[in-house]
Predict the 3D structure of the following.
Amino acid sequence: MNTSVGPAQWISQRYFCLPVMLNQEVFMEKKLNRRAFLKTGLAATAGLGMVASGGVFSKTLAWITDPVNNPMPTRMLGKTGHEVSLFSLGGQATLEQPGREDDAVAIINRALDLGVNYIDTANQYGRGVSEQYIGSVLKHRRKEVFLATKSHDHTYDGTMRLVEQSLSRLQTDYIDLYQHHYVSTFDKLEQIRGKNGSRRAFEKLKEEGVIRHIGITSHSSKILTDAIEEYPYDCVLVTLNPAMSIMDDTDHLDQFFRVATGKEIGIIAMKVFGGGGLMNRGFTPRQLLSYVFSYPISTAIVGISIIPHLEQNVEIARTFKQLTGEEMEQIRNSVLG
C-alpha cells in the first residue's frame, strides 16, 4: 500500500480508477479516526454498490474498522508452501444446514475479510450443502483460499465419483487438499491402501492436477501415526482439545506429534470445542483455542454458527501468546465439576 495517502484515497485510486471522491481535507487531518472514514468513505462507496462485494475492497474495510488492526498469525502448512492463518473456517454448523445460505455466505465472506485463508469441508457435510455454500462464495474469491475437502468412500471408484461432485459444488477445477475422511478403524486404513482403495484414486487425481495435496483425517492419533509412518501424507486432521473429548487413543498423541513434526507434515486441529459442548463444562473459547494453538499445529478449524463467534475466535488468534506447560495443565484441570 502507498503509505503517502490515506486508506480511503488508496482504495479509490487503486481499485475504482475514479477521482478521489472523498473530502481530502478530512483525511489529511491529524486527528482522523476510523469513524471519520466510515462517515465519508463508506457513504461514498455505498452509492457505488461496492461495500459488500468481497475481495480486496471488503478486506480493506475490515482492516480499517478493526479497532486493533493486528494481522492474524500464520504458520507453514507442512511442506505445502502455504502460510495458513492460525484460525481457519470449518464447513459445519451453519455452513452445513439447509436453508441457511444467506447466513453461511455472510460467515464465509466475513472470515475471508478477517484474514482466514483456509476452509475445510467435506462431501458428507449437510449431504453436499456445505460444499455448495462455500462454492457460491469461492466462484468469486477462489484465489484467496486454500481449499480442503474430503472423500468418505475409501474405494477407487467411489472416490472418483465423489470428487466430481465436490468439484461441481465448490465451483472450482482443483482442490488444494483432498483427504480420506474419518478413518476410524485399521480395517478402513487397510482398505485405503488396497489395490482398489481410494489412495490410488488420490494419486491419479494428483497426477492430473485435480488435487494438489493428499491428507487423512481421524479421531485416533494411533491410526494417524500408523498412516503417516507408512505413507508421505502432506497433511493430517486430528481431534484436539484439553478435555480429550471426541479423541481416540489419546495415549498415542505424543507419539503422533513426534512423528508428524519430524516428517514436517501439516497438522490441522479439529473438535477444538468438543463439538460445542466444552463451554458447558467450564471452558472458555480463549482457553480452548489458546490450548490447541500452543501445540505444534499449523491451524485449527472451527465450524461457526454466527458472525460474532467468528470475530471472537479470530481476535483470540490475533492476540494469541504461547502457553507454558504449566498453563496448559491448568486449562486441562479447569473444567467445572
